[in-house]
Design a protein that fits this description.
2 copies of one chain form a homodimer. Chain A is α+β, with helices and mostly antiparallel strands. Chain A has a single domain, classed as Mth169, Chain: A (2-Layer Sandwich), CATH 3.30.1280. Chain A is 31% helix and 39% strand.
Chain lengths: 77, 77
């Protein structure tokens, strides 16, 4: 089973990496980009015994810093 | 319009960040995790003039290092 966890900075938290990419895209001539935000995608290969409650606990304790980050996840069989 | 780009290491490319998280999950008592891979999720806020061909070009030239990384993306209205 795969658990796909997306971790991203909360709205309002400054994202310097995203800003840098945004600027670089402009320099390369890509127009029409208004904003860039960069987060993490964590793909866990887990046993079928791992429930979404356990994944949630993993996110809260290790995978996301909930002070500045939000997360969502989905479990795929 | 939002373009959501996922960039992840190709299979076979060592992922030390993923290995560290895998190990840390084990130390915290989370069992049943077989593998962890960590990639990037880049969320671009783009004008409606930006087509998927343009997003593809952004990925090839800047967002992904295609020597060691694969990517996929979807455009959401």
């Amino acid at each position: 089973m795969k658990a796909i966890v997306n971790v991203y900075l909360k709205q309002g938290v400054l994202d310097p990496q995203g800003k840098a990419v945004h600027h670089a895209l402009g320099s390369l001539g890509f127009n029409g980009v208004n904003d860039v935000r960069i987060g993490k995608q964590i793909v866990l290969d887990v046993d079928s015994s791992v429930t979404s409650d356990i994944i949630k606990e993993m996110c809260e304790t290790l995978l996301a810093n909930t002070v500045i980050e939000d997360y969502n996840f989905k479990l795929k069989p």
